[in-house]
Amino acid sequence: MARMVHFFKQETVFCVSLFLALFSALLVRPDLAYLGYPDYRTLALLFCLMLIVAGFQTQGAFALLGRTLLRRSSGLRGLSVLLVLLCFFSSMVITNDVTLITFVPFTLLVFRMIGREERVLKLVVLETIAANLGSMATPIGNPQNLYLYSAASLSLGQFARSVFPYAGLALLMLLAVLLVQRDEPLRGSGALEGEETPAAKRLLASLAPFLLLLALCLLVVFRVLSYLPVLLCVAAVVLVVNRKLFRSVDYFLLLTFLCFFIFVGNLKRIPEVSGLLVSLVQGRELWAGILASQVISNVPAAILLAGFTQNAAALLTAVNLGGLGTLIASLASLISFQAFTRAYPGRQGAFLKVFTFWNAAFLLILGAEALLLA
Predict the structure, then answer these.
(1) Which of 263, 367, 256 is nearest to 320 (CA)?
(2) DSSP label at residue 186
(3) Taking the domains of the chain in order of start, what are their residue ranges?
(4) Cα 364 vs. chain centroid, distance in angstroms?
(5) Between the CA of residue 331 and those of 13, 117, 136, 311, 371, what are the distances in Å?
(6) What is the pTM of this model?
(7) Out of 14-18, 197-201, 358-362, which region has the weakest mean confidence (pLDDT)?
(8) Between the CA of residue 335 and those of 102, 175, 348, what are the distances in Å?
């Protein structure tokens, strides 16, 4: 029983999605139509990108990037700006959750080394916001982008209009918050030097297979290549280069997608339920996406609501902005919460207070922008 409780706490969204899928299967008896529910292209791309990003991590590419940039910091304000920008722009390629897994523990370590731990809470919260909002700027930045861009066949122009204005304003807001803080010289900055930097040629050689695979995945994202040959290619290369990377894949995220596909597919086959949801969502995508994200997080919200609206561009904006707000609005935020509370036990309340304040402030301003642009 204890193991089941622990598993439910660790994989709450998956457990909920599994329950919904099974419940809906009682209403719509399983048949061959179930095979048409999943978006196999999105699932294949998610699987491939998780393998590729894990490959980058094993080579130490992200930590090396962080140390290299930090050596250029002369003061506490500059250090904070670099760390937040690192999260903002890295998330566009390696996703928001991988960004936070990589750089939040790194930030906690750095601020402990320089003896400024009293400043780290606000910075971790801003890094979390930066990763969640920076990731909206590319189709591969987060799972909801990848799904909506793929499933709704959005053009690059539609995608850019849906996210760029908000990512741009978010960047300016983050810089404004950081630049108004008091600057101080770094103490113990020698601790930032970290390990010796490996030769650039050696690092590039080790990353070459993964860079090539990433390029192939991007061609799938932009609908130049079919997903199936690329999926087979990625699996074959990883099997040869480092088969342990298969353990790094978040299979429960893939299963969560699959369960929600089943749940939504079944709801669409119940005329009364489908008609009600369409009437509730269409024309109200912004508020539906933001509010649903606060309760079930933005990835499930995107999958659920996409089945009941034709305005995928508005929903894309909504679920990305919906990642702000509550701690579960974007599940990537839980990574920061867990990393911080492990380092500082007993400060959960302090984290939630600072996190909620800054998330609400960003959501209020970006939500106002969305209303004006709409």
Answers:
(1) 367
(2) P
(3) 38-183+200-373
(4) 20
(5) 9, 25, 14, 24, 25
(6) 0.81
(7) 197-201
(8) 10, 23, 13
